[in-house]
Amino acid sequence: MIVEEIFINKGISIKENINKAIFFMLLASLCFAFTVSFAKLLSAHMSSIEVVFFRNVFGIVLIVFSFLKLPCKKSVNKKPFLLIFRGMVGFFGLILYFYLIANVSLAEAVTYSKASPIFTAILAFFLLKERLNTYAWVAVFVGFIGIVLIMQPDMGVSKYNLMGLALGIFAAFAYNAVRELKRSYDTRIIVLSFVLIGTIGPVILMGISEFYYTQGLDFMLGRFVMPTGVMWLYAIGLGISATLAQIFMTKAYGEAKAGLVGVISYTTIPISIVMGIILGDSIPSISVWIGIFMVVSSGVVIATKGK
Questions:
Q1: Shortest CA distance to 174 belongs to which of 116, 100, 98, 130?
Q2: How far apart are alpha carbons 239 and 222 in whole angstroms?
Q3: How far apart are CA 236 and CA 209, in angstroms?
Q4: What are the C-alpha distances in Å from 169 to residues 1, 76, 135, 172?
Q5: Are 66 and 251 in contact (CB under 8 A)?
Q6: How many other CB atoms are found less than 10 A from the CB of residue 133?
Q7: Rounded CA gap, 14 and 296, in Å?
Q8: pLDDT tens column, 14-59
Q9: What Cα–Cα distance (Å) separates residue 98 from each residue in 38, 39, 92, 200, 259?
Q10: Is the dihedral of CA 122, 123, 127, 133 positive or negative?
Q11: Residue 16 belongs to what H/E stretch?
């Protein structure tokens, strides 16, 4: 893969699979943090659905370019419906994610997205009939308490809280699909399915918005606004960092057990908190800090001792 070759050519030698997983996931976490930062900046000038569009359209260009430089590996045991499913749930989750980024702090938005292990465990229990041990059930309980603290129910349950819960569920479906698809497809094919659907979907929704718009659906509707000046730098930065994050993350899941990779992925949260404060977010309250800690802790426990 081109990105991997760049780092290897610079002298970074990674021999063990576990070290590769750590390396790629740390890079992914850094890229994800830059992604949400660029999205926050762009959201001040355009609708969330247009931000989703720019997040993906530049990704298509980058991936196609990588195909020209390094041919795609032959796919085995093709699973087209799962590939489409991964793209769809990723797209729906991204709509909610970028809407949250525009309206709440980066700390809250990113933590909601990282609550996926909690929902993954529950979905596995009810849909796949997988048994959860005591550690997992305790972690799920602790994680939900953490989510409640982040939601700050004393201030009333808002639509942002509900969207945060839905985001965690969509993320759980998406990550489960990635772990299955990496056995059959080149990393870039998996990412391409996501960015293609994530580009076509916003075009359709922005087209609909030209004829119909309601404030109640502002999270998925919005008229196209042509970027100008520094907005183009934000849009390009968003697309490049997001695509690299997806590639690095998918590569990491292909190198080691999902539990290890999932634990390392939580480094996105502290990096995003710092970037959010730099961009104007207020410092999280004590209850939110405790909630974030509980969500992260529950995710770590589920990933390492949940089976």
A1: 116
A2: 19
A3: 24
A4: 31, 28, 21, 5
A5: no
A6: 11
A7: 27
A8: 345 677 778 888 999 999 999 999 999 999 999 999 999 999 998 8
A9: 11, 7, 10, 17, 26
A10: negative
A11: none
Q: What are phi and psi of 221, to 5 degrees?
A: -120, 150
pLDDT at residue 6 above 90? no
Which pTM does this prediction carry? 0.84
Looking up tokens 């990588």, which residue turns up? 66
Yes or no: say if 56 and 235 are a contact pair by the CB < 8 Å rule. Answer: no
Amino acid making up residue 155: M
**Could you tell me the CA-to-CA distances from 178 to 82, 136, 174, 246, 275 in Å, in that order?**
9, 22, 6, 10, 28
- Beta carbons of 238 and 56 less than 8 angstroms apart: no
Rounded CA separation 139/12 (Å) = 37
**DSSP labels, 161-178:** HHHHHHHHHHHHHHHHHH
Tell whether the torsion through CA atoms of 272, 98, 169 and 218 is positive or negative: positive
